[in-house]
DNA sequence: CTGTTAGCGCGTTCAC
DNA sequence: GTGAACGCGCTAACAG
């Protein structure tokens, strides 16, 4: 590796017999500087491939042009889509993105956020872990005067703007669609009780049933803990083998629906004829299952873009107090698994 | 609420009537400093939540404790798995990871790498785009004396260490497995001719046929350009409708195999009885298809870990010249789509 | 043992 | 128009 000495303002000054400050000003075409000087300096800089030392600039201005992004899981279709959107927007505005994951473990999230807080980041985009409730480590960010935007999995305990999906509405539409298709005994394999998204979807489910004057049956509501295929399989088995089994299942997410589908197929129960199935999130898997899974698309890319925009706005206008909550509409994607008619 | 302004060494010095340098040394328990002083300073720093200004440190030491990571696509099961591994290892060693994507477009890759080069990164992990051949923008990294490690999609034009999968071996095993199952006319929907991975897999395919004394049939070898489901569908259609159709298809990747499967199912061609199918990469979709897809697992997480380790080794021992190439073995995952017997 | 001094590269006074 | 000087926070060489 060749150690190429980097050109500095001082070097240029020496070469051109100018002072450092003149060179500095010339490069940004300061009005005080003579046009000839400006041209001269710019030409020299160009020819010798002068690159300003970002480290020095950042140090002086106390900012890094980096923003942090923490998600529960990186290997996850929805989250990677969000990240993709955030990176796209950030890059457009001249920022880079530092990515970390919490694995849904509070300790890991704290470690990641502290690692970023130590001045390597101007602001933070975060989707909190299942274990995060208060978020002391995130308050540290705010205390330092750094911008934070929450997205998707959020907590109201933290006074920051957020970008979320209209989970209530998405669930409501999904369940209403099932009802419209003629299903009457609709089960819900839901998420954790302490997670906002899961609750919103649950509420949407309940509301849809109520609006259609369908009874709410407690034994058809099952709570996942880890949100896995296995849970989907297990709960479906329990319900189908119990009495008064459901004729449709609305699952908190596509993987869970896959577990449910697996059980139904094993038992030769026809989808959608005997049991209808709807997932949530529009993972790539939902298109690949057979029958293809009806699901709720969350526009992850757009969420990433919006979250990044919001954060960068805040960073650039420190004075403004943002408290905005952007709610993105979902889109029901109807496929074979729920089309009885 | 903590103090709004950050505590500096100078502040501590003033408060304790010590010089800045003494404080600095005390905090790192320099042997020259009296134990009492060390204790005193440390206690004060602790109580007042002193956090060293990383920006200043980095500026002075000319490094950032960040490493860059560029992949063709972020929303991609394999790559996100690699990233996950790289982040895990980097964090362990006190580094953060800056992520960007090229979308398989050379221009985007150049932009991303330049954005990172500008002193926001100590080294780079990259999986090059389909369009990258020479990699002038990557040479700039090397010229600046920054470490670069290539992984998965690499070019030999660039003298850097790499971490790759044994694509040849993986393909060889996959095709040998098909042969063992009794398939005789094995097609290959391959990747681009100018991409190394694709060629290695192709070679493995050829070698397996040769070793089994099976003929190589040109009309059963089809080259994808964009590596999509549509191409898989189209090529399979062409081959199945042409004369001397294949009785098995080895696909460059799982999505392509999904396209192939889609066509076969539409036409009522039985998998694996009439046509066997094998993919590559072990995406989550491969488990969800029905029949489940036989595929080649690439140990993405491990690849990320190895690549990060290599890069950090280089960063930490600037003097050592690394030219290592780590080749990770693959693992054939046999599922229903290829089990004729 | 501890303090003084001298930068790192840049931008921003304030003089001339 | 331009230059000199200072400081951002920290480290390291050199004194004492």
Automatic annotation (TrEMBL), chains A, B:
Q: Domain of life here?
A: Bacteria
Q: Which GO terms describe its molecular function?
A: DNA-binding transcription factor activity; transcription cis-regulatory region binding
Q: Which SMART domains match?
A: HTH_LACI
What are the HTH lacI-type domain coordinates in residue numbering? 7-61
Q: Which residues form a coiled coil?
A: none
Tell me which InterPro entries the record gives. Answer: HTH_LacI, LacI/GalR-like_sensor, Lambda_DNA-bd_dom_sf, Peripla_BP_I
- Record keywords, A-Z: DNA-binding, Transcription, Transcription regulation
Give the protein's recorded name. Answer: Transcriptional regulator, LacI family
| Species assigned in the record | Belliella pelovolcani
Upper lineage is: Bacteria, Pseudomonadati, Bacteroidota, Cytophagia, Cytophagales
């Amino acid at each position: 590796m060749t150690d190429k000495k980097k050109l500095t303002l001082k070097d240029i000054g020496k070469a051109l017999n100018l002072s450092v400050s003149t060179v500095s000003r010339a490069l940004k075409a300061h009005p005080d500087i003579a046009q000839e000087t400006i041209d001269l300096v710019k030409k020299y800089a160009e020819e010798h491939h002068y690159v300003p030392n970002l480290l020095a600039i950042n140090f002086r201005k106390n900012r890094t042009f980096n923003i942090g992004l923490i998600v529960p899981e990186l290997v996850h279709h929805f989250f990677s889509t969000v990240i993709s959107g955030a990176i796209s927007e950030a890059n457009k505005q001249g920022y880079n993105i530092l990515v970390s994951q919490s694995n849904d473990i509070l300790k890991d999230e704290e470690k990641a956020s502290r690692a970023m807080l130590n001045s390597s980041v101007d602001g933070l985009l975060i989707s909190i872990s299942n274990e995060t409730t208060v978020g002391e480590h995130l308050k540290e960010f705010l205390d330092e005067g750094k911008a934070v935007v929450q997205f998707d999995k959020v907590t109201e305990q933290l006074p920051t703007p957020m970008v979320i999906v209209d989970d209530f509405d998405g669930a409501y539409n999904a369940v209403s669609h099932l009802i419209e298709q003629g299903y009457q005994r609709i089960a819900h394999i839901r998420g954790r009780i302490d997670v906002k998204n899961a609750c919103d979807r649950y509420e949407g489910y309940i509301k849809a049933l109520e609006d259609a004057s369908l009874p709410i049956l407690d034994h058809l509501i099952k709570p996942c803990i880890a949100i896995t295929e296995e849970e989907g399989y297990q709960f479906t088995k329990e319900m189908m083998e119990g009495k008064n089994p459901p004729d449709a299942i609305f699952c908190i997410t596509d993987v869970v629906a896959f577990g449910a589908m697996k059980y139904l197929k094993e038992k030769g129960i026809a989808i959608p004829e005997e049991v209808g199935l709807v997932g949530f999130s529009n993972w790539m898997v939902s298109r690949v299952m057979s029958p293809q899974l009806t699901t709720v698309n969350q526009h992850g890319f757009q969420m990433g873009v919006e979250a990044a925009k919001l954060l960068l706005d805040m960073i650039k206008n420190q004075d403004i107090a943002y408290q905005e909550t952007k709610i993105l509409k979902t889109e029901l994607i109807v496929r074979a698994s729920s089309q009885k008619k």
